[in-house]
Write a structure and sequence with these properties.
The structure is a homodimer.
Chain A: H1 2-11, H2 16-19, H3 22-25, H4 34-41, E1 45-49, E2 54-56, E3 64-70, E4 72-78, E5 84-91, E6 95-96, E7 107-110, E8 114-120, H5 121-130, H6 132-158, H7 161-176, E9 187-190, H8 195-202, H9 206-218, E10 222-225, E11 229-232, H10 235-241
Antiparallel strand pairs in A: 1-8, 2-7, 3-6, 3-8, 4-5, 4-7, 9-11, 10-11
Helix pairs in contact in A: 5-6, 7-9, 7-10, 8-9
The structure holds a DNA duplex.
Chain lengths: 246, 246
DNA sequence: CGTCCTATTGAAATTCTTCAACACTCGTGG
DNA sequence: CCACGAGTGTTGAAGAATTTCAATAGGACG
């Protein structure tokens, strides 16, 4: 009885760092028991990274893995001559790092201020060995990233510049207000990317991005302040502009 | 002793269907014991599908899963107005089917004649429950598909039409002669896609694809017979043409 | 105040698409 | 046996979209 009680107390002892952490609820840590969290937290470090800071480069060893606590991370690829394509954006509480591969295939860079909770690969492996559910969550995140990548492929391959930009704004909006994205209300949020990054994400030049921002503004679909603050006046029209029906 | 012997005999009893199957070696079935294979094979069916035949549609329930025994499968997405983008090609012995999701997010269609070995979702789940290694293999395939999708994103977003076509030919070549792709020798193989599919894969029109085929032909990099038979005369030049250095 | 970074706008150049015509192959049926 | 049509692929000319080059403007910072 006393035994049980003590265990209870012990189990409720979630590490301080984890208590308010989003990754514990929706991220990969969600499947861990307090004991496992405590064990993992012995190997974790928190980092703050400024915009432009690089977390890992394509070709580099797997190194440390991280949960994103806040901010937005760009995943990008480079062509030998310097052309760049952003192949994914990661938001809190996404997991960041190459699983099951010797090296990273993309470069990860902070788009905004980013806070990470990172741990060495060995710690992740130990956790997965103990908690198959965590392995499953990693698989689920990979599947979600695959879906997102393929969704973006149709944007890159088949949409016009105007549709691409509308798609991007929709994507960011959906991360600020999940669920009720196709709703009626007025959204207001900050773009996590500067024009050059948006261009690299959409496969366009900054000039084309800028021109189509202007068109969306003039058509009244969005309102822009300080280049980054976006207000969506008419979500339905934006959604329509992101697909066929111009 | 007699017990062990009987087990040995039993274990070596790989189902007939599986003996020559590539999926048993390099695919998801590779981690299964003969016993597990026998169990799984009780639920499997083989299908042959002609070019253009649809395996499953985006939005359809997960239904059956398959190993590709031979042939090439297109994974594609549609925009409401009918524009199409091929988001992936799958070759034997790839696994085909939506894991861990209620419904498919892409449409799968045979590009060539395709032979499948399929089984219901429940059978797959039973196998994964018994063989964690199989779950791991599925995760690895998902990671590989994610890498391929992201590689293709830079092709779609940042390459010129000429580079895109060269990239496509390289991609197909690498599946006909894995490993020594950057070698010197002369390759000859058949394209699994018709021009319209290549256009949908590259985010171009069939006319643009055709024009750049002609340019590659006239430049001597490739030789084309019957529209589909490709001979790569100079792999290094093709590789160079697929990236920056024209 | 000058410089760097970011963003916008215009004009010219380029690439890709669209529209149109034509060629080839392969079955089918008269 | 040949004509016909469907499916596939090539080529040309005109048009549209995007890029490139160039100039300008505002904000942040030393």
């Amino acid at each position: 009885m006393a035994q049980v009680q003590r265990q209870d107390i012990h189990n409720s002892d979630v590490p301080l760092l984890c208590i308010a952490c989003e990754a514990r609820h929706k991220g990969v840590c969600g499947a861990l028991t307090p004991l496992q969290l405590t064990e993992l937290s012995r190997h974790t470090k928190r980092h703050a990274i400024a915009p432009g800071g690089e977390m890992f480069a394509a070709g580099a060893g797997a190194g440390r893995h991280s949960n994103i606590l806040s901010g937005v991370v760009k995943l990008s690829k480079l062509l030998p001559d310097g052309r760049q394509q952003i192949v994914g954006l990661q938001f809190a509480p996404d997991f960041l790092g190459r699983q099951n591969g010797p090296e990273n295939t993309v470069t990860a860079e902070a788009a905004t201020n980013v806070r990470l909770c990172s741990f060495p690969q060995s710690a992740l492996e130990a956790v997965v060995a103990q908690s198959p559910e965590t392995g499953h969550r990693l698989h689920l995140q990979t599947l979600r990233e695959l879906d997102e990548a393929r969704d973006w492929m149709i944007t890159l391959g088949r949409k016009t510049a105007a549709e691409k930009l509308a798609s991007f704004i929709c994507l960011v909006a959906s991360h600020h207000n999940p669920e009720k994205t196709p709703g009626k209300g007025v959204f207001r949020f900050e773009l996590p990317l500067k024009r050059a990054d948006i261009a690299d994400f959409l496969g366009l030049t900054i000039e084309t991005v800028s021109r189509h921002f202007t068109k969306l503004r003039k058509s009244g679909i969005i309102f822009v302040e300080n280049n980054r603050q976006i207000t969506i006046n008419d979500m339905d029209r934006l959604l329509a502009a992101s697909q066929g029906s111009t």
